[in-house]
Design goal:
With about 475 residues, this protein is an alpha/beta fold. The chain has helices spanning about 35-50, 70-85, 95-105, 140-150, 170-180, 200-205, 240-250, 275-290, 305-310, 325-335, 355-370, 375-380, 400-410, 455-470, and strands spanning about 25-30, 60-65, 90-95, 110-115, 125-130, 135, 165, 190-195, 215-220, 255, 265, 275, 295-300, 315-320, 340, 345-350, 355, 390, 395, 420, 425-430, 430-440, 445-450. Strands 1, 2, 3, 4, 5, 6 and 7 form a seven-stranded mixed sheet that branches.
Length: about 475
């Protein structure tokens, strides 16, 4: 390993309930998240995952960071916490989150990524995983990390660990390309909007020298102030530039990534945004062709088309709650080959069950390359476009349980409906369904509705929103 880190002094930090979320640590810098918090979290993480070699652990933690102005300082502090707790640190420097997962998986080390993903520039955060890129959430260690960090981190008093700097970008790119056959000869023009974020670092390494691929880059310069638009592709306003560029360049498709490049959104040749469930269905078909009869995971608001397509192609659809830790856990339990979420996260068994926006993009490119010449992406996806969805609609409410109960009572008297409480409230009918679930962190209810046609979807959507947002009864 490289040089030794410095030992740290245990000092209690502020109460962290506001920054320790369901799946990661995230907050405004420095008001909510600063070097002291990052240092304490680093030390606590070593203790929780048993990373010290003298505890029969892996002996090290791997660390990556995004391009935000606050990331180098937070990464340094986190590293001090890790080495002060007696573990070595493998620093991979600038990275996407899926690049960090690659390092954690290939090196079989627990990992941490300094990033606030799609959040605005004033935010930052820490995503954590166990060795092999296994998830860390509230029920799988994050609550323990918070408790120890609030007390100041690790109480270890032995010699500090060492720091080694390692470049894994080329190996990461090679691994992704080994998982998808890109041998088709059809030439493609692809516009990529990196949003001045980490896709500007990883896309050239993965896609830059592919044969018969013309890459049109948008905003590849790393700049955590996001001078052109926020790195949040789920917001349609942030896709406008990509849509215009696809049309201007007569491109075959456009790709958009979030701040840490673990999510991918796609724009088709018409400049239309492709709903992530359509990509889930497309990739599921491809993965089932390689692993016949395998399970495919989709969260419960992905919609009806995905499980239908999985069954039609001989797979086993598995429904799960929203959230990456639930999906990764169910993938491990079922041996699923693939999983998809409505939010643009795509998970792959052969990528340590972790999510990778670029791996999903490679599948879309490979599918187009293998299609007959001239076949547009919209035609390739048309067989999976079977229902009309509302998208996710948020409502701020004063009393979340009371609003949920009001909706339940309104639909309990209906004929031919069923109820499901897997994640919030789901109501199913032959022609429609909706899910209403509370936010983990805010006084919000999130509604997703889907139906066989637009008029039916809008009627269901408007009725539920009226119940949620209307006066109490």
């Amino acid at each position: 390993m490289g040089h030794r880190g410095a030992a740290t002094t245990v000092t209690a930090v502020r109460e962290l309930s506001g920054v320790v979320k369901a799946y990661d640590v995230r907050g405004v810098v420095p008001d909510e998240l600063d070097a002291d918090v990052a240092r304490a979290v680093g030390g606590a993480f070593v203790d929780v995952v048993g990373a010290r070699a003298d505890d029969d652990g892996p002996g090290a933690v791997v660390l990556g960071r995004d391009m935000r102005a606050s990331s180098p300082g937070l990464a340094t502090a986190f590293a001090e916490g890790v080495t002060g707790a007696g573990a070595d640190l493998v620093d991979i420097g600038l990275a996407s989150t899926d690049q960090l997962y690659y390092a954690a998986g290939s090196l079989d080390l627990p990992g941490a990524m300094i990033t606030a993903s799609h959040n605005p520039a004033r935010y930052n955060g820490i995503k954590l995983c166990r060795a092999g890129a296994a998830p860390v959430g509230q029920d799988t260690g994050l609550a323990d990390v918070r408790r120890l960090a609030e007390a100041g981190g690790s109480t270890y008093a032995g010699p500090p660990g060492r720091v080694e700097r390692r470049d894994v970008l080329a190996a990461y790119a090679g691994h992704l390309r080994s998982l998808v056959d890109l041998g088709g000869t059809r030439p493609l023009v692809v516009v990529v909007d990196a949003a001045n974020a980490m896709a500007g670092h990883t896309v050239p390494a993965v896609l830059g020298d592919l044969l018969a691929l013309t890459l049109v880059p948008l905003y590849f310069e790393l700049d955590g102030s996001f001078p052109h638009h926020e790195a949040n592709p789920i917001d349609p306003d942030n896709l406008v530039d990509l849509q215009a560029a696809v049309l201007a360049h007569r491109a075959d498709l456009g790709l958009a990534f979030d701040g840490d490049a673990d999510r991918c959104f796609v724009v088709d040749e018409r400049g239309c945004v492709v709903a992530p469930p359509l990509l889930t269905a497309l990739i599921a078909v491809r993965e089932l062709a390689r692993s016949p009869g395998a399970a495919v995971i989709a969260n419960l608001i992905t919609g009806r088309a995905v499980p239908e397509v999985v069954l039609e192609h001989g797979g086993v659809p598995v429904r799960t709650r929203v959230g990456h830790s639930y999906i990764k856990t169910r993938m491990a339990e079922t041996g699923a080959v693939f999983g998809g979420e409505h939010s643009g996260h795509f998970y792959f068994r052969d990528f340590w069950r972790a999510d990778s926006g670029l791996l999903a993009a490679l599948h879309v490119l490979a599918a187009l390359k293998a299609a007959p010449a001239g076949t547009p992406l919209s035609a390739l996806l048309a067989p999976y476009d079977r229902y009309v969805a509302s998208g996710e609609l948020n409502s701020e409410v004063a009393d979340v349980p009371a609003s949920m109960q009001r909706v339940r009572r309104a639909f309990e008297a209906r004929d031919a409906v069923t109820f499901d409480d897997l994640d919030g409230l789901s109501v199913e009918h032959a022609d429609w369904w909706f899910n209403l679930r509370p936010s983990n962190t805010e006084p919000l209810l999130r509604l997703n509705a889907e139906a066989v046609d637009r008029a039916t979807m809008e009627a269901v959507r408007d009725e539920v929103l009226g119940l949620v947002r209307g006066p109490a009864r």
